[in-house]
Amino acid sequence: MLSSPFSPVPALKAPRRQPTRAGASKKVYGKRKVDAPRAVFDHGSPIRPTTRTTKTKAGDEVKAVDELLDDVQEKLARVKIEEQSEPEKKEDPEKEKEEQKGKESTAEDGQRGDERPIEQATSTKTPKAETKYDVMKEVRIHAPVEPATVAKQPEEGSTSKTVESERKRVRKQKKPAPRLSSGCIQDPKTNAYARPILDESMSPVAFEGVQKFGSWAARAGNMFEVVKIAEGSYGEVYKLRLREEACRGEMSKSKLAKLRAYGDGVFKIVPLRAQSGPGSKKFTSVDEIVAEVKLLKLLDPIPGFARFREIHVVQGRFPESFQAAWNKYKQTKDDCLNPNPANKRAYPDSQLWAILEMDDAGCELEKFSWSSIFQVYDIFWGVAMALARAEEYAMFEHRDLHLGNICLRSTRPDGCMDPPTSLSAKDLESSSGFGLSSLETTIIDYSLSRAELRLSDNPDGKAEIASSDLDKKQIFDAIGRDEDEILLRNTYRYMRGQVYKGNPLDEEKAPDIPGIWAEYTPKTNLIWLLFLLKNLLKHKKPEQHQPSPPPPPPPPREPLTPRHANRNIKKSSTTSSSKSDLKKKKTINVAVDATDAEENKENSHDQSQQQQQQQQEQIAALQKTLSDRLSKVLELLDLKDGHEDMCCAADLVAYAIDSQWLAEKDFFT
To answer: What is the mean pLDDT of residues 80-90?
Structure first.
């Protein structure tokens, strides 16, 4: 199993717990390009040595140190080798004493003492030699052995049994103290309260129990700089930035490369609802976090959804590095609305936090400025295809797909997210129009989502559903302060009308029905896609048309060459006349060639201008085509006069493929 710096890798790999689906496995349409970088240290931290603990059935912690066991096994193997010559020695007690004295004095005397009894052993043997050897065999073990233990050893037994018993005895005698690096909370009530979340963890350390916030953060040492990048009503999002200067001299290039890959991750820190007392009626409940983690693990293989790494539960105040990142965000950003983590009135010392560790999905759509129809086309259809895949795979509804829950990244090597300035003729001819902006979309935050997790073992075949009761969220009564917020609040109400009455435009609010949000109503995805498309078209900035490049400047005139040194020497008239004729011919030919070259340059320049003009016309025609397609989508998704057969995002994507708005390779690869 792989892990992060906050989840040390054990020497013995623990089984990875993943959600299972009974029955036939469902196919995931589309492929992930790369796997989530879950591993940073293959053999523990590159800065400090790591030890690990494994939990036995009896609940005891036993320290497993491979190097120590290998050393003990090697020494025991040496004892086994000496067993061949040992029974043949020590027949005579006097010679045995002499041999022992020789070993204590010098190594050479000891060697000669080993040779003398071997020669005499061929003649006579006594039955008592084996008994003496058994006693000596136990004494020769390098680990300290108590006299009482030696006396209780059986006289007969194989060497393998002795080795195994000795290993067990060494483990019991050298039982270590509980590991301090994990910093687990020992309160049984706290661990029992957070156990449903801990059961979803991927690493043994995170699974073991609630950890101290400071101990958890200290595992990264000084390798990373903590930066706060966003916040919401759920909590806050932090990112790690690698400090290459601090790591370059302390680790190999391969481990440094893994740290760079791991730095491309985010930590979503969510305050958990208290079990009782202050904070028991606010924040996020344990069941809601469990549902979100299960959805993260379920949707991880689907292109267009966030990559899950790990879930941690910690307790205590913010560590210094995270608090400093929060303070800096407060000073530099104007959207810092959450209370200060250092405020004890807002968060007590016993506050529990759930930390969801994921890949960095990029920039939030609400913080991105789009100005090209190519960007709008890729963003909309990227989200639509991701929802269609999730519907087919897990009967998924997002139910909260505002602009802050869609992230963008560039597929270009330099990471540039600007609209394309030029397109090749091959791209214009072979592309359906999707993928020209090089923007990649990712859907995040499933706190209000619904999905089918797996089939249960019950005879009736009911599936386990992950969902959230939206009626308890108080999101349907808000009005909004401007046009954009009004559209967002109306979208929540449209979604509720679709779930309760099958009509999103029914303004009468029906009474709450317990359990209704666990039902599958995929048309809610279309309601959110309509909201997305309206915002994309409304806030698209005017495109900045790139002027055609100016014609290339004429080549510079060659400088005059110096006259020859023999220019004043007089030659015969015949030779001079013939050479003068040749010079005239050469001059005429050079003039003709120069004229032809100028004409060729003008013709090539005219041809390049014509090609550029044709390319601009093709781009303009494609932009007009994409705009018309999106306008048609607005008609199909209209809540009042839309297409009757449009019931889910998969229907919309199938319609787009049939209409050649999308290519099959856009969806299946």
So the answer is: 44
- Strands in 224-231's sheet, in edge-to-edge order, are 211-212, 308-315, 352-359, 265-271, 236-242, 224-231
Mean pLDDT of 549-567: 58
Q: Please, which residues have CB within 8 angstroms of residue 108's CB and are 6 or more apart in sequence?
A: none
Alpha-carbon distance 605 to 594, whole Å? 16
In three-state secondary structure terms, 595 is: helix
Check if the beta carbon of residue 30 is closer than 8 Å to that of residue 669: yes
Exposure string over 8-31, b if 16+ CB within 10 A, otherwise e: bbbeeeeeeeebebeeeeeebbbe
3-class secondary structure, 88? coil
The conformation of residue 365, written as its DSSP 8-state character, comes to: G
Start-end of H helices in 333-467: 373-394, 425-430
Average pLDDT value for the chain: 77
List every span in the chain annotated with CATH 3.30.200.20. Answer: 1-52+179-360
**Is pTM beyond 0.85 here?**
no
Separation between Cα atoms, residue 485 and residue 528, nearest integer Å? 14
Q: Is the separation of the CB atoms in 518 and 510 below 8 Å? A: no
The Cβ of residue 239 has, within 10 Å, a number of other Cβ atoms equal to: 18
Question: 455: which DSSP letter?
Answer: E
| pLDDT at position 254 | 81
How far apart are the C-alpha atoms of 389 and 366, rounded to whole Å?
24
**pLDDT higher than threshold 90 for residue 559:** no
> For residue 158, what pLDDT is reported?
53
Looking at per-residue pLDDT, the higher value among 460 and 201 belongs to 201
Strand partners, 237: 230, 268
Strand pairing report for 224-231 and 211-212:
unpaired
Q: Is a pLDDT exceeding 70 seen at residue 296?
A: yes
Strands 265-271, 308-315: pairing is: unpaired
What secondary structure letter does DSSP report for 360? -
- Listed residue (662, 627, 398, 390) closest to 654, CA to CA: 662
Task: Establish how many alpha carbons lie within 13 A of residue 579's alpha carbon, considering only the half-sphere containing its beta carbon.
Answer: 7
pLDDT tens, residue by residue, 326-374: 999 999 988 899 999 999 999 999 999 999 999 999 999 999 999 999 9
Q: Which CATH superfamily is domain 1-52+179-360 in?
A: Phosphorylase Kinase; domain 1 (3.30.200.20)
Partners of residue 228 on adjacent β-strands: 238
Strand partners, 408: 363, 441
Helix (H, G, I), strand (E, B) or coil at 397: strand
Percent of the chain exceeding pLDDT 90 equals 44
Distance, CA of 381 to CA of 277 (rounded, Å): 47
**The pair of three-digit structure tokens given for residue 135, joined into one six-digit string:** 């006693």
- The answer to whether the beta carbons of residues 574 and 580 sit under 8 Å apart is no
